[in-house]
Amino acid sequence: MNITWQAENYKDNFSFVHQYGEDVLNLITGDTKQFVVDLGCGNGVLTQKLSERGFRVLGIDDSSEMLAIARQQYPDLEFLQGNAVNFQLKEKADVIFSNAVFHWIDGNRQEEMLRNLSCQLKPGGQLVCEFGGKGCAEQVHAALEELFRERGLSYLRFFYFPGIGEYTSLMEKCGFKVTYAILFDRPTPQKNENGLEEWIRMFNKKPFENLSEDTVNEIWAQAKQRLQPVLFHDGKWFIDYVRIRIRAVKEPR
């Protein structure tokens, strides 16, 4: 993954991630006796929601900081540290569920990840996921890219935001039959007047890693000024999210 999480800040100020993710749970079909893996479970909120629906669940995440919070909050659930690209299960899953994870995986490793997910599912098992799609947070990234360019700096984009045709075709190549797929805009409100800066601090730190503190603060201030007319409404910042939501089934071999 292309990020190291500030786990406590994530829990306190970015609860919208799992709140929006609750709706994705409804794409899971079949009875509640199924074994469901919550891949990229973070602090475990959606793992608990899956458990409340009656599923037998396992949460997997690559962040030890996030898993520490998950284990503290939900001591009766099982959590495992692992990476989406190469985690291994002792028992094949009926369902792999994943919310807001796949866009953190490098584009050149997406096929490897999908093939691993297929290997960890039973034949006919479901992959249900939502993640950032083409155009996600583009107004923010475009403004930052321009501000970097004005200073003779390169703004590196670390996210993978595919189009829906691109991604569903890749899934089919990796042994999945896509039964539902949608790409949609979801402007996402942040908690307070500093929401833009806090969002960048949490989700988009890498482009700023080698810059001086003065340069970083200057870019943030100018980004706020340029984006306020389009992304600040009613006392809140709205990040221009675009999401892909998919349900797919592992094809029997």
From TrEMBL:
<keyword id="KW-0808">Transferase</keyword>
<feature type="domain" description="Methyltransferase">
    <location>
        <begin position="36"/>
        <end position="125"/>
    </location>
</feature>
<dbReference type="GO" id="GO:0032259">
    <property type="term" value="P:methylation"/>
</dbReference>
<dbReference type="GO" id="GO:0008168">
    <property type="term" value="F:methyltransferase activity"/>
</dbReference>
<keyword id="KW-0489">Methyltransferase</keyword>
<dbReference type="InterPro" id="IPR041698">
    <property type="entry name" value="Methyltransf_25"/>
</dbReference>
<protein>
    <submittedName>
        <fullName>Methyltransferase domain-containing protein</fullName>
    </submittedName>
</protein>
<dbReference type="Pfam" id="PF13649">
    <property type="entry name" value="Methyltransf_25"/>
</dbReference>
<dbReference type="InterPro" id="IPR029063">
    <property type="entry name" value="SAM-dependent_MTases_sf"/>
</dbReference>
